[in-house]
């Protein structure tokens, strides 16, 4: 049917407990996210935002209910297959930095997928330049500052050019100029028909990007999909 929303990520009656915990962190969550536009996931600290996104990428497995990705149960995918569809920037960049140089880190996903070395190099150079990391390309990532690690983690995920991006507090440690670059990139990504799910306490960042806001409190979705005007911050 024309105009009908097509689910890319779908949670059906998902309940999730962390091991040893008595209370569920997510309770019977039903949620549909499309593979287009930018959605913000809001809610107070501890409401379950990060856990919800980890369920979406198969890192946290529901105790009850199902998760579907692009129409198929997430149980039918390997984590690598999910990773090719959904790029995920973790809240703590150190969670995803493991290579010995910044350039290797940014190109890891592409090389791992078997992309030709020239194409990997071209993309790595682009993302290093875009996030002002060229000067550190031969540096050990974990020796850099928190803000630089954050930019490497973002560059490494964006370089993979997945169909859908989940970013958990991506502006931590970014100055206004780098934040604007990320904002511009995400707007272009959305215009290319890709989807973005954003967790951020940075109100101006969310206001300038999110077309839709989903709110979670105490592990339950309390509002799903208020469409909103994107605030233009063009001069
Ligand atoms: P948010 O992203 O909204 O701040 P989280 O999903 O990080 O919320 O956390 C939701 C709840 O789950 C919190 O009460 C938090 O303390 C708890 N929690 C998060 N991670 C773990 C874990 N690994 N083990 C046990 N409890 C956890």
Characterize the structure shown.
With 235 residues, the chain is an alpha/beta fold. Helix content is 33%, strand content 26%. The protein contains 7 helices and 10 strands. The strands form 2 sheets. It has a 6-stranded mixed β-sheet with strand order 6-7-8-3-9-10, sandwiched between helices. A 4-stranded antiparallel β-sheet has the order 2-1-4-5, with helices on one face. Strand 4 (64-69) and strand 5 (72-73) form a beta hairpin. Helix 3 (102-112) packs across helix 4 and helix 3 (102-112) packs parallel to helix 5. The radius of gyration is 18 Å and the shape is globular. The mean pLDDT is 91.
What is the terminal separation in angstroms? 39 Å
Largest sheet descriptor: 6 strands, mixed
Shape: globular
Number of discrete helical segments? 7
With strands numbered from the N-terminus, the spatial order across the biggest sheet is: 6-7-8-3-9-10
Helix content: 25-40%
Structural class, please? Answer: alpha/beta
Query: What is the count of β-strands?
Result: 10
**Gyration radius, rounded:** 18 Å
- What is the H/E string? EEEHEEHEHHHEHEHEE
Q: List the bound ligands.
A: adenosine-5'-diphosphate
Low-pLDDT residue intervals, each spanning 5 or more residues? none
Strand content: 25-35%
Mean of residue pLDDT values: 91
């Amino acid at each position: 049917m024309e105009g009908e929303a097509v689910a890319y990520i779908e949670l059906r009656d998902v309940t999730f407990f962390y091991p040893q915990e008595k209370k569920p962190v997510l309770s019977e969550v039903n949620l549909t996210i499309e593979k287009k536009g930018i959605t913000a996931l809001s809610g107070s600290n501890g409401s379950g935002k990060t856990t919800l996104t980890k369920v979406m990428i198969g890192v946290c497995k529901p105790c009850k209910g199902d998760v579907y990705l692009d129409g198929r149960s997430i149980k039918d995918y390997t984590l690598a297959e999910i990773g090719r569809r959904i790029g995920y920037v973790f809240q703590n960049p150190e969670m995803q930095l493991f290579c010995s140089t910044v350039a290797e880190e940014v190109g890891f996903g592409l090389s791992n997928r078997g992309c030709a070395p020239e194409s990997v190099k071209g993309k790595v150079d682009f993302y290093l330049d875009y996030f002002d990391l060229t000067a550190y390309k031969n540096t050990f990532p974990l020796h850099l500052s928190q803000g630089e690690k954050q930019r490497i983690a973002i560059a490494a995920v964006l370089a993979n050019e997945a169909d859908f991006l989940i970013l958990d507090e991506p502006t931590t440690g970014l100055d206004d100029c780098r934040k604007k670059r990320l904002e511009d990139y995400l707007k272009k990504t959305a215009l290319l028909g890709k989807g973005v799910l954003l967790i951020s306490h940075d109100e101006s960042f969310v206001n300038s990007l999110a077309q839709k806001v989903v709110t979670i409190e105490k592990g339950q979705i309390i509002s799903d999909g208020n469409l909103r005007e994107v605030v233009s911050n063009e001069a």
